[in-house]
Write a structure and sequence with these properties.
CATH architecture of the largest domain: Roll
Helix content: 25-40%
Number of strands: 11
Radius of gyration: 21 Å
Number of helices: 8
Distance between the termini: 44 Å
Order of helices and strands: HHHEHEEHEEHEHEEEHEE
CATH class of the largest domain: Alpha Beta
Shape: globular
CATH topology of the largest domain: Diaminopimelate Epimerase, Chain A, domain 1
């Protein structure tokens, strides 16, 4: 984990540390995280951290297997249904929440995934949505008794069912979704906290934003609207080009970088829009990757600027 201990933020804990703690329990090592947080032994803590890092790598491998199967079924340019519903008895149930989030990012569709794993006698699964339809409401429209249990909220949920019912799952969810009201406009409009010019993105602004920490569910990071930005270039990075890096001209003749995680597929959009102006919704942040500091933006959304 590339974390600067001198500048530890709530975001570091939520997105860099917590996933390792979470992975241990999801992959079946239920006591590892508890032991790490309660041990007084530095040597034991080191051993437990190494174990958690290995578990996180194992989790990432199983997520990749799920995504590989889904990409094979729905390759780029192919027909994709309104709701992606897939499962496999070999998929590890402990990775399906992460996999469902990735599928949601890749296809912009509600998704239901199920798996069983090698040692389980029941099927477990996860569901995700951007809010255009509530996944928990879909599950409430499933015939009573089909699920062993289910729960969640409009954007995320989980469920369990007997393995004998797995073959019926797709049809049952499709029928339930047809009975569930959709909120067509939800998610189409994103709100900004303030409008910002690219010249105003500086360390002074970031220092003022830092006073609003810690950010989280009840105190989300401020979102800024930057209009009519001139794109310098767009590149992809990360495994298989999963992420997108945009560089925009700033008023001082230099450039300001914008990171868009899980949006690598949009590189084609920017290539085809070369020369056009871009409107951007983004957070302001300081990256401290590999010990070097970089003031940058993290994209929330973007579009071609209005003519």
């Amino acid at each position: 984990m590339r974390i600067n201990a001198e500048h530890l933020t709530a975001e570091d804990i939520a997105f860099s540390i917590a996933p390792y703690i979470n992975a241990a329990s999801r992959m079946g090592n239920d006591t590892t995280s508890f032991e790490l947080l309660t041990t007084d032994s530095y040597e034991k803590a080191e051993w437990l951290v190494d174990r958690m890092v290995a578990t996180k790598a194992e989790q990432a491998h199983f997520v990749d297997l799920v995504l590989q199967d889904i990409r094979e079924k729905y390759p780029e340019g192919s027909f994709v249904p309104d709701i992606i519903i897939m499962g496999d008895a070999l998929w590890h149930p402990g990775v399906l929440g992460i996999a469902a989030n990735r599928v949601l990012d890749l296809y912009s569709r509600p998704v239901f995934l199920w798996g069983q794993g090698e040692e389980s006698e029941t099927v477990k699964g996860s569901a995700r949505s951007r809010g255009e339809i509530s996944v928990v409401e879909i599950m409430r429209h499933v015939p009573e008794g089909f699920f062993l249990d289910f729960g969640g909220h409009h954007a995320a949920g989980g469920f369990g069912l007997e393995k004998e019912k797995a073959g019926q799952f797709e049809n049952v969810i499709v029928e339930a979704a047809q009975k569930t009201p959709r909120q067509q406009d939800l998610g189409d409009d994103l709100l900004a906290d303030a409008e910002l010019s690219i010249s105003e993105v500086d360390r002074d602004l970031l220092s003022r934003l830092d006073r609003l920490e810690p950010f989280g569910m009840e105190n989300p990071k401020p979102v800024f609207w930057l209009k009519g930005l001139s794109l310098k270039h767009a590149t992809v990075f990360g495994k298989d080009g999963l992420h997108l890096k945009l560089s925009f001209h700033n008023s001082g003749g230099g450039e300001l970088n914008v990171i868009a995680f899980w949006r690598g597929k949009d590189a084609k959009f920017f290539e085809e829009s070369r020369g056009a102006l871009i409107d951007l919704l983004a957070n302001v942040e300081m990256s401290r990757f590999n010990g070097s500091e970089e003031l940058r933006l993290r994209a929330v959304d973007y579009k071609l600027a209005d003519a």
